[in-house]
Amino acid sequence: MIKKLGAAALSCIMAVSLLTGCGSDTSSREERPKDELVFVNYRDIRDLNPHLYAGEMYAQEMLYETLVTFTEDGGYKGVLAESWDISPDGTTYTFHIREGVKFSDGEVCDAYAIKANFDAILENKDRHTWLEMLRLLDSISAPDEKTFIIKLTKPYYPMLTELSVTRPFAMISPKAMKNGSTKDGVNAYIGTGPYVLGEVVTDEYAVFEANPNYWGEQPKIKKILVKVIPDNQTRIMALEKGEIDLIFGKNMIDADSMRKFKDNADFTVALSDPTSTRQIVMNTTKPILNDKKVRQAILHATNKQAISDGIFYGAEPPADTLFAKTTPYCNIDLKPFDFDTALAEKMLDEAGWLKGADGVRAKDGQKMQLSLLYNSDSVAEKAISEYLQSEYSKIGIVLNISGEEEQSYRDNMKAGKFDMIFNICWGMPYDPQSSLAAMRYPVYGDYEAQLGLEDKAQIDEAITKIMVSTDEKERQDLYTFVLTRLHEDAVYIPITYECNKAIYRSDLKGMHFTQTQYEVPFQDMYFE
């Protein structure tokens, strides 16, 4: 669903400056054929191995396909599998593979090719610990070229959802594998999708061309040039000059740029429904944050509306809960932690943290000092950190903020080396099931952050039951229990709901947001 932006949402300016870059083509829209489109991204397409996680997902979506995909109404439709059957006990999935599909190198995409892909994925099973399905996997088989069977040890309701996501369950040509393996790289990026990869100049551009042998409907856009332009203002200038046609992505467009184009009839500005939740995770194993009353006080001291208005200018609405109510199973009655500094101070007093002559709270000789870690590549996280540092100081909390480059930041998150740290939930179709399932293991920071909870074991047990429940009411009751416990335990400070963004030429039709924030639906686009 596309939302046109109103004036109130973009009444102020926030500039974002990154690095500068250039592409390979400076021709204007009028000079290009109508079946060609110029897209832009802030970085290179990188490694497009569909069984690993380094490449750009929009590019992988263009090249590769999965057995099934999810639909806007929450259902599923066949892609490489034309249909499927599920055993009455929910443990056996029999997929009937679509006939006549070939990889772009001419290799037949039959059940044997599907099994070769699953064998490659399972060889690297430890890399995919976030997938609960792999923990429940009993066997895979291809009894003939038209039939692929997955057997589980227990029923698993998100099974089709996990098979729908691009990685790691997208199919690559077995000929492109290295001795039947993909964990150490592939020889070429060969899929069955609507596009094939052409010329690539690292950190400059990549060319995608329509796959002439695609089994589905041929896309109207026959050639897509993806230019690498890291700098926001340079991207905007290129759009104005007609050198690019579409800017797409939640981190690709700042509020100033959206305000600039919203009244320009030559361009369309769009926002999606909420895709994920921007949040701060509090580590309950740390001495100060081990006290639930302290965590709840910090939630009451966080002015999310001010962050939404002052940093995102309304483009990201304030978040009251870990998942938006539009997320499946998450439309439950949870009382928000309203912004109330008087209540926050009262709760801190009751917890024994009293203000000293210097205005800083202390207890048993210990000052109330906390650290907040953010990704130094994120201008928004830095701005939020500085705002919270100032606001928390007013109630006697010293907040020490620091930014680290992405890999270091993620390593510290996974290891639990933080008091407070920024994170996001995973977005559709991964929410809420995959985000919650991963909380039981040290995949990201959630596991370490929750270890100080008295009810951690009960929460994990309920999540495990959710995954294998075959009763819809029981599943909803379990979700309600887990989300209520996490909410009342105040492990997370939901900040805002992130939205996907796009600015594009108004003569480009068919642009829309899909069920995942990572897909750009090029195959639906065309120029008038």
Automatic annotation (TrEMBL):
Record's bilayer topology term: Lipid-anchor
Domain Solute-binding protein family span(s) in chain numbering: 77-441
Subcellular location: Cell membrane
InterPro entries documented for this protein: CntA-like (IPR011980), Peptide/Ni-bd (IPR030678), SBP_5 (IPR039424), SBP_5_CS (IPR023765), SBP_5_dom (IPR000914)
UniProt superkingdom: Bacteria
An example Gene Ontology biological process: nickel cation transport
One Pfam entry name: SBP_bac_5
Signal peptide: 1-20
Keyword Ion transport set for record: no
The entry's keywords: Signal
Any Gene Ontology CC annotation: ATP-binding cassette (ABC) transporter complex
CDD domains reported in the protein's UniProt record: PBP2_NikA (cd08489)
MF-aspect GO terms: heme binding; nickel cation binding; peptide transmembrane transporter activity
Assigned protein family: Belongs to the bacterial solute-binding protein 5 family.
Name of the molecule in the record: Nickel ABC transporter substrate-binding protein
Organism this protein belongs to: Megamonas hypermegale
Gene: nikA
